[in-house]
Amino acid sequence: MKRSTGLATILALFAVALITWPAIADPMEATISLGRDPEPPFCVDNPGGTLDIDWNIEHETTPNYVLYQLWDPTQTVVLEEETYPGNTGITVSRQWTVPAGAVDGKYWVRVEYWSFEAGNEANAEVTFYVCNGTGTICATKYVDADCDGELTGQDPVVPDFWICIETPYGDEFCLQTNDDGVVCWEGLQFGDYTVFEPEVPGWIPIYPASVDVVIDETTPTADVTFFNLFVDDCVGACCIGHDCYIMMEQECIDSDGLFLGIGTVCEPNPCDELTPAQDASWGEIKAIYR
Asked: Is residue 61 within 8 Å of residue 27, measured between CB atoms?
């Protein structure tokens, strides 16, 4: 009995030790911050332009090596490659100069981190553009302040509004308008672009929200205008019979209602007082507000 009791005690203590022994955490997977300058959609001049490439690797494992590669637009030809043994590839800055005879296009940079514990632990890729000849696209954003659907000198520009372009490679890039309501992309490769404004709740485009433009040697610059109506600034009370609705003037007219003006409200309900006793006089009341 004493022997079996002693064995049971030992087993119980061992079980407690298994439960309370602190777990050894798995090492965090490495991450690679990979950058290049200039970034798309801006171009590296062909030939002779210089691309700055840099990366930093956060890791907890033991570095074996870091592999760097630069690929041509077909992603079948390695134009530049280097293997950094051990810690020598953890933080790197390097340059690549576009050689004579290079083709215009979208190029690729790839960095791989290999550790002794995990093998190929982390990878990162970025793209960049190489081109011979560049142009500029600018866009200006206006808001219809008087809600009349026409762009005039009284309609202000809109700062801090996102405008985007889609490049000939199908990539999309966005910038915010400055204090003058303007955004520009310089150093763009010649080709076909789409300039567009993202759909934003409350904004209704009066001019097209998307415009296709071409920049080339004969027309290296393109200017686009976006003109919108901001719904909250262009609505008011609309009387349809005894009922009051908040809507835009044209919506009210299309609903055969009486628009009381921008900024008017439905509380208290103004429609009871305006609704005529006889339908024949309804047009006379509408005429007062139009």
From this structure: yes
